[in-house]
């Protein structure tokens, strides 16, 4: 079974349209003689254009025909027609199980008039969808399919809007712009509502208003050690320190480049432990005050040394 035939059968079956003598009008992608016979057995009529590469009698596939001339071929209820309007146009082939082999006053088959009347809605829909299209070239077929579905959804929404709204009608472009703006505003509001409810992660956060150091670690033993790396910070009294701290035996100096005051140095280390920071009598954090270096095994999150112009003696 051809893909077009499968689509028509599946659609009519899902809608429960068989055996109710509906008249289905299709374009050349779906139409075939086998499909017309199958639908006729299921109590459904069909009319549509035929592609030249489909199975059909040779007198219809390769006709000898003049301008503004039509030829018909019938087998039971199955009617085939070929019609050529002018010299510049190719012959048009049609199939129907409901129409008759009659011509109108201008010599055109009534079968073609019926087809144009019913298929005009499809052509109009394609014309509406093609307006204001923001297509992009892509190698991914699914992107084209999704884009076309969205465009048809917007087109149908615009038609329903015109039929059910008493307000002054918007143009299709203004209607499309309003949809984009409303969706963007709704997304922005949902993001703003989610932000305050975010749970804090376990990453260390830079302490606001305290000094901090980056680029180095403090490693020592028995109260001695060396801390290397750039240390910058704004002290509680307004002093600003920048430079490199290199000390031994628990001592070292910083370069002062700001005003005077007491500077709070916060040891924020993602890997170091409090063993070498919270020596007895030096840590001002009440959680660590009085702890000695041998029994302090917790990660140091806020171990502060309060000194003026000199970190520690």
From TrEMBL:
<dbReference type="InterPro" id="IPR029526">
    <property type="entry name" value="PGBD"/>
</dbReference>
<dbReference type="InterPro" id="IPR003582">
    <property type="entry name" value="ShKT_dom"/>
</dbReference>
<feature type="domain" description="ShKT">
    <location>
        <begin position="267"/>
        <end position="302"/>
    </location>
</feature>
<dbReference type="Pfam" id="PF01549">
    <property type="entry name" value="ShK"/>
</dbReference>
<dbReference type="Pfam" id="PF13843">
    <property type="entry name" value="DDE_Tnp_1_7"/>
</dbReference>
<protein>
    <recommendedName>
        <fullName>ShKT domain-containing protein</fullName>
    </recommendedName>
</protein>
């Amino acid at each position: 079974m051809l893909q077009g035939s499968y689509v028509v059968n599946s659609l009519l079956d899902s809608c429960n349209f068989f055996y109710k003598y509906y008249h289905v009008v299709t374009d050349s992608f779906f139409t075939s003689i086998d499909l017309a016979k199958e639908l006729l057995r299921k109590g459904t009529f069909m009319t549509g254009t035929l592609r030249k590469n489909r199975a059909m009698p040779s007198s219809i596939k390769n006709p000898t025909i003049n301008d503004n001339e039509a030829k018909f071929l019938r087998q039971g209820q199955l009617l085939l027609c070929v019609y050529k309007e002018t010299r510049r146009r190719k012959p048009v082939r049609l199939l129907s199980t409901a129409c008759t082999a009659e011509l109108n006053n201008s010599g055109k088959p009534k079968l073609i008039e019926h087809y144009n009347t019913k298929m005009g809605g499809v052509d109009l829909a394609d014309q509406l969808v093609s307006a204001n299209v923001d297509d992009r070239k892509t190698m991914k077929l699914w992107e084209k399919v999704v884009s076309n579905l969205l465009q048809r959804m917007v087109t149908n929404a615009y038609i329903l809007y015109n039929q059910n709204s008493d307000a002054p009608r918007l143009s299709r472009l203004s209607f499309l712009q309003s949809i984009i703006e409303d969706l963007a505003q709704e997304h922005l509001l949902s993001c703003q509502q989610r932000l305050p409810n975010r749970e804090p992660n376990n990453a260390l956060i830079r302490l606001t208003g305290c000094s901090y150091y980056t680029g180095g670690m403090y490693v020592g033993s028995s109260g001695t050690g060396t801390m290397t790396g750039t240390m910058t910070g704004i002290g509680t009294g307004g002093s600003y320190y920048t430079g490199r701290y290199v000390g031994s035996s628990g001592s070292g100096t910083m370069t002062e480049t700001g005003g005077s005051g007491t500077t709070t140095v916060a040891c924020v280390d993602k890997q170091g432990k409090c063993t070498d920071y919270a020596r007895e009598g030096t840590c001002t954090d009440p959680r660590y005050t009085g702890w000695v270096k041998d029994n302090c095994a917790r990660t140091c999150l806020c171990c502060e040394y309060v000194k003026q112009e000199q970190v520690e003696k």
